[in-house]
Specification:
The protein is an all-alpha fold and 93 residues long. The chain is built from six helices and no strands. The protein folds into two domains: 56 residues, lambda repressor-like DNA-binding domains (434 Repressor (Amino-terminal Domain), Orthogonal Bundle); 32 residues.
Length: 93
C-alpha cells in the first residue's frame, strides 16, 4: 500500500516525519496522515516524491503487484476491447 511505501521510504532515508515533510514542503501532521492512510498525497506530490527519492512510480503505487494479481482479468478485458474496436471498424466500412 502507498501509506506503507511512504513510511518505509522515509525510514530508509533515516528521516523522521518532520524532516520528510520539510523536504516535501508539508507538515509533520500531513506526513502522519499519509502514513496512516487517512489522507493521500496528490499526483503532483507523488511525482515529486519519486523524483526526489529516485523511486519508480509503478513500485510506489504498487502497480506491478496489482498487475500480477489481476493479470487474467486484465487480459480478458483487453481482448473484449479489441473485439469491440474490431466490430466498430467493420461497421464503419
Amino acid at each position: 500500500m502507498l501509506r506503507d511505501f511512504i513510511k518505509e521510504l522515509r525510514q530508509e532515508f533515516g528521516l523522521n516525519q518532520t524532516e520528510f515533510g520539510q523536504i516535501l514542503n508539508f507538515s509533520q501532521d500531513t506526513i502522519s496522515k499519509w502514513e496512516k492512510g487517512t489522507r493521500l498525497p496528490d499526483y503532483k506530490t507523488l511525482i515529486k516524491i519519486a523524483l526526489i527519492f529516485d523511486v519508480d512510480m509503478n513500485e510506489m503505487l504498487g502497480l506491478e503487484e496489482c498487475y500480477q494479481k489481476y493479470h487474467t482479468e486484465i487480459t480478458k478485458k483487453r481482448e473484449e476491447m479489441g473485439k469491440i474496436t474490431e466490430k466498430r471498424i467493420r461497421n464503419r466500412v
